[in-house]
């Protein structure tokens, strides 16, 4: 039975070892990357810790409403002349003694300072939670940018490789033309030079792709780029896409959902409560308290039984005293501290309101820019796509004419380079539009996906 169980465990372990590398080789979708980055990003984790600190501060401000309780005690050894508090006479001998005390005090009223501090810390905690969400949104946009950069660079690599293959095929055709005397040796050298340049450009684009992969893996905090691959989703036709939402509509929606706006709003509310708490420093303070104290020493005598020893516990019980009190403390002059605190709270409130306005302005500007850039990128994509189609036709025609000797190698290279550039422009415009569109979707509260 034990041997059978051992075989099952061994087989399971081997299976996991086999499957784990295979899983590591699976392509990552954009959603996978975003989720992994949020779960492992250091900035996000630090914001979460800051939120925990804010929560502890909020909790502590509520605990400040409770009374405090403090106990103290001391034990001493006296040598020489000292007062015996039991007889209120001087004793000139060595003896030991001590005292115990317990005090508790509770603030009943101080201009609602503690209440306002609780509210302020609560809003600060809520603001910090929104800052954590803001950090997650930032990493989402950064991951999306890096992911799209890989898609763009991969498309540029494919385009460059495709054009190189065309050139290599043309080299073979030109060699045959040279052999039968229908093309000059110089034409072959020219097109071989074209192939060399395109190989160099392909290498450059492959390097850019590797760097794009490195950028994404660093955002993901992966130890190595080895074995890391992403999914290459099919990109839909963007020529017919339209956005019927105005910048104002998107902006109004963003104000309701973006964490930086909510955080700034909570900070304004927190500053308002801080100001109210500062005003509380002008108010008198009312306290109630309780005090217990007792004492003992080894030379004390029980007046009811002076011939026997007086145990410490009996002394503590007999000498105990208790008091319940109420106190009022009126602030008269505290070196201008309260006035300065109020002025600082007013400044902080004004600054938090300006910060809220600034956040709103930045968001509106970002939405306007994203809309304008998306529209421009879509127009540029349509124009470049039409240009690329025309350039392709022109290049194919020039290629046919070159093969029958109707145009020279210079005209052939020019037509090919123009076609290559047009295809590159199409790819650039396409992914520029996709990125700007994703930003607008983000401001609408939609999940970023491809």
Descriptive overview:
The protein is 67% helix and 12% strand. It has 450 residues and is an alpha+beta fold. It has a four-stranded antiparallel β-sheet with strand order 1-4-5-6, covered by helices on one side. A two-stranded antiparallel sheet has the order 2-3. A hairpin with a 4-residue loop joins strand 2 and strand 3. Helix 2 crosses helix 4 (113-179). The radius of gyration is 40 Å and the shape is elongated. The two termini are 52 Å apart. Residues 1-24 have low confidence and may be disordered.
Radius of gyration: 40 Å
On the 0 to 100 scale, the average pLDDT is: 88
Overall geometry comes to: elongated
Order of helices and strands: HHHEEEEHHHHEHEHH
Largest sheet composition? 4 strands, antiparallel
> Termini distance?
52 Å
In the predicted model, the low-confidence regions spanning at least 5 consecutive residues are 1-24
From the 3D coordinates, which CATH architecture would you assign? Up-down Bundle
CATH class: Mainly Alpha
- Main sheet strand line-up: 1-4-5-6
Number of helices: 10
Tell me the count of domains. Answer: 1
Q: How many β strands by DSSP? A: 6
The proportion of residues in beta strands is 5-15%
Helices and strands: which structural class? Answer: alpha+beta
């Amino acid at each position: 039975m034990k041997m059978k169980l051992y075989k099952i465990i061994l087989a399971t372990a081997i299976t996991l070892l086999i499957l784990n590398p295979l899983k590591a080789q699976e392509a990552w979708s954009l959603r996978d990357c975003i989720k992994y980055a949020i779960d492992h990003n250091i900035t996000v984790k630090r914001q979460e810790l800051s939120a925990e600190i804010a929560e502890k501060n909020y909790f502590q401000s509520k605990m400040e409403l409770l009374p405090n309780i403090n106990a103290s005690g001391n034990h001493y050894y006296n040598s020489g002349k000292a007062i015996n508090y039991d007889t209120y006479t001087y004793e000139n001998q060595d003896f030991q003694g001590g005292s115990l005390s317990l005090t508790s005090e509770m603030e009943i009223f101080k201009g609602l300072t503690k209440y306002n501090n609780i509210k302020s810390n609560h809003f600060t905690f809520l603001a910090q939670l929104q800052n954590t969400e803001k950090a997650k949104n930032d990493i989402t946009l950064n991951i999306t940018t890096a992911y799209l950069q890989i898609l763009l660079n991969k498309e540029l690599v494919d385009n460059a490789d495709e054009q190189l293959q065309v050139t290599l095929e043309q080299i073979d055709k030109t060699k045959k033309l040279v052999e039968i005397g229908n093309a000059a040796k110089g034409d072959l050298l020219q097109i071989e030079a074209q192939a060399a340049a395109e190989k160099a450009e392909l290498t450059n684009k492959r390097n850019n792709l590797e760097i794009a992969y490195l950028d994404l893996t660093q955002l993901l905090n992966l130890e190595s780029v080895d074995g890391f691959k992403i999914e290459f989703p099919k990109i839909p036709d963007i020529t017919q896409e339209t956005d019927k939402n105005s910048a104002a509509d998107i902006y109004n929606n963003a104000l309701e959902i973006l964490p930086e706006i909510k955080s700034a709003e909570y900070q304004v509310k927190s500053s308002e409560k801080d100001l109210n708490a500062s005003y509380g420093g002008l108010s008198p303070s009312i306290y109630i308290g309780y005090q217990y104290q007792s004492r003992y020493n080894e030379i004390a005598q029980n007046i009811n039984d002076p011939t026997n020893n007086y145990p410490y516990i009996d002394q503590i019980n007999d000498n105990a005293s208790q008091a319940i009190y109420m106190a009022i403390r009126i602030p008269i002059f505290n070196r201008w501290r309260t006035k300065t605190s109020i002025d600082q709270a007013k400044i902080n409130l004004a600054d938090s309101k300006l910060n809220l306005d600034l956040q709103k302005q930045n968001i509106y500007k970002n939405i306007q820019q994203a809309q304008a850039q998306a529209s421009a990128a879509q127009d540029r994509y349509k124009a470049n796509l039409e240009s690329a189609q025309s350039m392709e036709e022109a290049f194919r025609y020039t290629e046919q004419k070159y093969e029958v000797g109707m145009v020279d190698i210079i005209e052939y290279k020019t037509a090919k380079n123009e076609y290559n550039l047009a295809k590159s422009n199409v790819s650039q415009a396409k992914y520029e539009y996709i990125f700007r569109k994703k930003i607008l979707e983000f401001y609408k509260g939609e999940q970023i996906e491809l």
